[in-house]
Amino acid sequence: DYIGSFSLPIEWVSELQKAGAEVLFFNPVLPSSASVGPISFRDHRKVMICDSLGFCGGMNIQEEVGEDIYGSSRFYDVHAKLEGPCVADLADVFRD
C-alpha cells in the first residue's frame, strides 16, 4: 500500500532495485492516473512474489513494538511461504 509505505526506508527499496527486483506499491496517489480508486481505497494485504515462491500473511508486528504492549508471549503473527501452482493464484490476487 502506497500510503502505508511512507515509513519504508528508501535505502531498503534502493537495495532491492539494485539487486534487480521490481518494487511496486499498491494504489499510488500520484500520478492520479495510476490510482485505482479514491485515496481512501487502501489495501493492507502483505503479498510478495519472488521467482517461483509466494509469501503472504501478516509480518507487520515488530517485537520491539508489540512486546511493550502484549509481552513477548501474548501474540504471534502468521506468515506463509507458498510453492507450486498456487503462486500463480497469489500473483493474480496481487494484481487484482
Describe the model.
The chain has 96 residues and is α+β, with helices and mostly antiparallel strands. Helices cover 28% and strands 16% of the residues. It contains 3 helices and 3 strands, in the order αββαβα. The chain has helices at residues 10-18, 63-70, 86-95; strands spanning 46-50, 53-57, 79-83. A 3-stranded antiparallel sheet has the order 1-2-3, with helices on one face. β1 (46-50) and β2 (53-57) form a beta hairpin. It is globular and about 45 Å long. The two termini are 13 Å apart. The mean pLDDT is 79.
Terminal Cα span: 13 Å
Shape: globular
- Total helices: the number is 3
The ordered H/E elements are: HEEHEH
Largest sheet: 3 strands, antiparallel
Strand content: 15-25%
Helix content: 25-40%
- Please state the CA-atom Rg, rounded to the nearest Å: 16 Å
- What class do helices, strands and sheet pairing give? alpha+beta
Q: Summarize model confidence as the mean pLDDT.
A: 79
Widest sheet: strand ordering: 1-2-3
In summary, what is this structure?
By secondary structure, this protein is of the alpha+beta class.
SSE layout and pairings?
Blueprint lengths: L9 H9 L27 E5 L2 E5 L5 H8 L8 E5 L2 H10 L1
Antiparallel strand pairs: 1-2, 2-3
Primary descriptors:
96 residues, alpha+beta, 3 strands, 28% helix, globular
